[in-house]
Amino acid sequence: MVPYHKEAESHDYEPSVIRRFLLRRGTGTHAPPSLHAKMIDLYWTVIPVLLIHYYATHPSAQFDGLRSKIVIVLTWVWSIRLTHNYFRREKWQWGAREDWRFADMRLQYGKHWWWISFFSVYFSQQILLIGICLPLYVVHLVDKPMNIWDLVAAGVCLCGIVIAYFADTQLHNFVTRNTKLKELGKPMVPNLDRGLWQYSRHPNYFGEQLWWWGLVVFAWNLGHGWTFVGSLINSMCFAYVTVLVEQRMLKQEYRAEAYRLYQKTTSVWVPWFRSSAIAVKDKDT
User: Fold this and answer.
1) How many helices (H) and strands (E) in the chain?
2) Domain count of the chain?
């Protein structure tokens, strides 16, 4: 929630709702400049890595060695991708901008913003982060031989990472092109509807959720399916922020009409096969 976020102007450029809507802190009227505001995105890419190594090296840990190595490697790959995307989005600067949703929140609550943000953002994020990482704990709690479900879980996690990477890369290229068009005084392209974005309006959200639900499959296979609660809450946050993002798109005059059509021809998250409307358009072309 922020004063101005160029990339949010074009599409949802946030790989995780938790890191963007719940976590980003700005430097507005009711909040002095804070280093923590600029570090919070990276905090979310680092903590899961630290947690999994803590669980794996704990004296009371019990686990299958191969499963542990697979999950550790996947967590590192996920973290590296997310960290790279963060710095690429910020033009290789450390927290140069603030998310527009946090600025909106500050304007909405005025002088009460500081204590509302403390509970709804900073305190809640600690609980949410631990909860969503519980499958990493379970992997190092149960010593059970690997089976086919571990391969399924690893496949889901890997698919999530790959989808999020390509979705964010396509979005980054789109935003970069639009920025150049704006600088040249030329009309900007209203919507990104190529690549993964021609099937889903938020493929980056979809990829990120696949990652976390893949971890849940690991835990479920080890007899701790209850750990789905963290990922469920995460998906609920994604759903809420998706609504906010789409409302914002429809308020921008230069893209409102195109975005309404885009909504009719795509899925919200899941990249289903293209709808008949798109197929007809391609056929006519």
Assistant:
1) 12, 0
2) 1
